Every structure is written in C-alpha cells, then in structure tokens.
Amino acid sequence: MKQGKVSTSTTDSMASSAKSKPQEPERFELQEAFDEPPAHIYLATWVSYFILTIMGHLRDFLVTTGLEKSRLPQELPKLKDFPPLYRDFESFYTRNLYRRIRDGWNRPICGLPGAHLTLKERASDDNNWTFYFTGEENDYINMGSYNYLGFAENKGTCADTACDALYKYGIASGSPRAELGTYSVHTELEELVARFVGKEAAVTFGMGFATNSTNIPVLVDKNCLIVSDELNHTSLVLGARLSGAKIRVFKHNDMGHLESVLRRAVVDGQPRTHRPWHKILICVEGVYSMEGSLVNLPEVIRLKKKYKAYLYLDEAHSIGALGKTGRGVCEHYGVSVDDVDIMMGTFTKSFGSAGGYIASSKQVIEGLKRRSHGHNYAASMSPAVAQQVVTSMKIIMGEAGGNEGQRRLKALADNAKHFRQGMKKLGFIVYGNDASPIVPMLIFMPAKIVTFSREMKKRGVAVVVVGFPATSIVGSRSRFCLSASHTREDIDKTLAACDDVGDLLGLKYKS
Q: CA-CA distance, 378 to 386, in Å (whole number)?
C-alpha cells in the first residue's frame, strides 16, 4: 500500500490554522502561606476539645440532677411544643466552653479605636457568668481594629468636615433614600465612589452587611446559580440564601475546583429541567478577613470569561488597603475593572466610617435603586458619616490633603510587611498574602486562645482572638490588623510581646 503524499498547500493550511487558533492565556499562580503544624499539635487540639466536651456533659448531668444550678436561659415548660429558642449544641458550646473564656471578647473601650485605645477594665467573681467594672481605664496598643489607613480620628480634616455636615444636615434623615433621605452629600459620595473604583455608577447603603444581604437577591433569582468561595463572609452567604438561587461552593481559592463546578453547571444546567441557567454568578472577596489571603483574581476572571459567568467582588477589606493608589485588588493585580461585573465594598475599614457601596454599570445601578430593600426601606446613611467617607476618599485620591493619602498607603504597606516578616522570623505560623493588612497567627489549642489574649494584654497589647464557630475546630487564631497609624515602635513592641508569650505558651510551631 502506497502512502499518500500531503500536499504543500494542505500543510500550509494546517500550519496557519494552528497559528490562528487562540491559545489559552497563561495561568496565574498565587503565592500565599498556609503552613501546617506538626501532627501532634492537631492531635493535642482534638484531645483538648474532647476533654472539654466530656467535662461539659458532666456539668450538664449535675445541672439535670439538681446538684448544680444553671444560669443560662431555659425554655419555659408551657412552650415545650414550640420550636426551641436555644439550639442544643450551640447552647452546650456557649455555656461549657465559650463562657469559661469569654473575658477575651467584647471588652468595652472608651475613646478612639486608633493605634492605641483605652479599655475599661472589668472583672468577674462567678467564672465569667457576669462582669463588673473595676473603675480602671488603661491604654493599650490596638492590634484588632480595621482602621487600615488611620482615618478613625477625632481631629483633622475628616473630623472637621464631618462636624460641618452634622450642623448643616443634622444627625440623620429619618427616611429611606427612595423617599426623603437623599441629600446632596449622598449624591456626591456616589459619584466619587464610581470615579474612584472606575465604574459608570454606584449606589451607597448605610450598612456594609446589608449591602450584600439585601442586594444579591436583586441580582439573581431561583433560575440562577451562585458559585461561592467556601470562606465567603456571612453577609454574602445570607444574601445568596435569600435570593432563592441554587448555590454551589468551591474550595477556598482552588481554581481547579472552581472550574470543575462551573463546567458541571454549564453541562448539567438546572436541576430536573436541565435548561441553561439564566445567570451564573461567581462570588468572591478581595481579602479574606480570617485568612489574610487574597482572591486569585486573574484566574477567576479567566474562568468567568471562559464559562460566560458574572463576577461579584466583595472588596470590604481590600478597597483603600491594596494597590498603589488604594483602589483595591484589581489595581493590585493590574486587571481591568471592566472584567468585574459587580464591585462591592464597605466604608468601615479604610475610610473610618460606616456603610457600603455597589459599583457597576448604570443599568445595574438603576435596577438596584428600583428594587433593593436596602435602598427603598432602610434609613439613609447619616450625612456626617457620608461626609467622612467623601473627605477620606478625596485624601486617598490626592484631591485633598496633598500627599497625605500616599503617605498613609505607604505606611500601611510597610507596617504590614514588617510585622508579617517579624512574626515569621519568630517561628509563628501565619496565614495569608504578604500584601494583606491582616495577619492571622495560628494558636490551635482551645486553652491557649484566651491565655494568649490575657498575656498580651498584660504586656500592653490588645489583640483579637478567634475560635470555633468563626473558624474550624482546629483553626483557632489571633488576628492582627495593621494600620497606617501604627508607629514602628508600636509594631516592634507587639513583636516583642508575641515573642515572649509565644515562648511561654509554646506557640512557635515552626521553630
């Protein structure tokens, strides 16, 4: 049998076809730290919780037999046929585990949550069932507030303009935006936000949580699919559930898993009918506040385009804190904001204020203004609060305060880098991205959670500690939040305190 000859023209045609075939863009690899502790640390953590659970059941037995009196709220006998007000496991965890260490949370402060804060000291004589004030007030380095750019101030340009707005407009509107609650300062703020993030239009809300929970139901319905990162904030989770849309969860920042979820969604379509989804909405955050990690935005955008989905980006912790000019995670990665369909953010972190925004096309924003419960029924943002955002945002943009905005952005980046590198050198396991202003330090064992907080407080540093259910059972940690208002002396003192307490409690799992 003779082999056929391939003509030159056919070969050239195949070569040109291969050349013209679009190549898949190069994938972006995200470099972040998520080190694991030695196996015996995990084992000790599980054993600790097991012992605490056994002791909790023993105490519950003593309460049941009348040998010990319970101080927790109880279901009334006449309401026994109604759904319970207190879930069994949550109540068990609260009274037997959390109650023993709750002096590490909800500490009352007085004064500014700036680089330093003043705590009202309290004590308990009944094992943390109740507290009373001792009358003392002490100053501590504040490593727990989301005051990224240091705008939580009562002096200076922001405070002065907020006070002027207070006298000009009053304390509050007492009305929703859709009725009589829109002031000129709200309109100015929305135009400024749209210009700052690079979108056509924006709408603002008085509460950051409600910005997600009341607007996602407007964007999608029961014929849509939401693909959500497993570590998304509760406000995103609630908004997704209220929308009635189907929800699929992908592993945190796992682009392979995200692609498999998207591929399956496109292939299978809607349950039962297998019709195509009306919309597929990918929901992610810019910076994840418990992990200190950044979304792999270039890869998310690549997959969004490949599977013709929409992208909802929550920039609560990244807007104002990331990027050369503070414009968030898009600027940090150098991607176009046009590739993000919905940009959401809050004013409580970098702007020293309250509320949130959504920025998108004019068509989307007009639709939200017509249908959003947060816009049509909730009272509008206080004019003084809105003015605080306007002034701080103009400072960041360089339209006020000279180069003050750039100074703060640089100070935040330098402080975050110095502290994260310092913690790593000391031998602690820290999570997240080097660019993140949030630095979580892993504690693991339950007894060390509150002990770390107490010991740091003794050394003049106020920290936030986090445990179950805000983290996994074995994922307890202390979450440090850096600020542009921290001095190098503040950070070095905090590192010295961590070094001392880390040795005391055996927390240097990498050393």
A: 15
Does residue 189 contact residue 390 with C-beta atoms inside 8 Å?
A: yes
φ and ψ at 306, to 5 degrees? -60, -40
Report helix, strand or coil for 281: strand
Please say whether the beta carbons of 196 and 327 come within 8 A.
Answer: yes
345 pLDDT band, cuts 50/70/90, is very high
CB atoms within 10 A of CB 100: 16
Rounded Cα gap, residues 286 and 232, in angstroms: 10
| Per-residue tokens: 433 | 């991205």
Closest CA to 463 of 493, 494, 419: 494
| Stated pTM of the model | 0.88
Residue type, 259: E
Burial (CB < 10 A; 0-12, 13-18, 19+), residue 152, is: buried
> Helix, strand or coil for residue 136?
strand
Q: For helices 404-426 and 488-505, what crossing angle results, to 10°?
A: 20
Closest-CA residue to 293 (of 27, 29, 28, 31) = 31
Distance CA 72, CA 144 (A): 29
Residue 381 near residue 346 (C-beta atoms within 8 A): no
Distances (CA, A) of 433 to 2, 120, 159, 437: 62, 34, 33, 9
Q: Spell out the residues 6+ positions from residue 157 whose beta carbon is closer than 8 angstroms to its own.
A: 391, 395, 400, 401
CA–CA gap between residue 359 and residue 181 (Å, rounded): 20
Cα torsion angle, 270, 273, 274, 277, sign = negative
**What separation in angstroms does the CA of 472 have from each of 45, 335, 440, 441?**
11, 33, 14, 14
Q: Which residue has the higher pLDDT, 279 or 11?
A: 279
Q: Are 220 and 281 in contact (CB under 8 A)?
A: yes
Neighbours of 470 (CB within 10 A): 12
- Phi, psi (deg, nearest 5) at residue 24: -70, 135
Question: In this predicted structure, what is the pLDDT of residue 340?
Answer: 96
Residues 333 and 313: their CA atoms lie apart, in Å, by 14
Total Cβ atoms within 10 A of residue 102: 15
The residue written with tokens 């307490």 in the block is: 501
Q: What percent of the chain has pLDDT above 70?
A: 91
**In this predicted model, what pLDDT tens digit does every residue of 68-105 receive, in sequence order?**
777 776 677 777 777 776 666 667 777 788 888 888 89
Give yes or no for a contact between 227 and 309, defined as CB atoms under 8 angstroms apart. Answer: yes
Calpha distance 115→487 (Å, rounded):
8
Q: Do 269 and 277 form a contact (C-beta atoms < 8 A)? A: yes
Phi first, then psi, for residue 364 (nearest 5°) are -65, -45
Beta strands (DSSP E) in 367-496 are: 438-442, 461-462, 464-466, 477-481
**Peptide bond between residue 469 and the one before it cis (omega within 30 degrees of 0):** yes
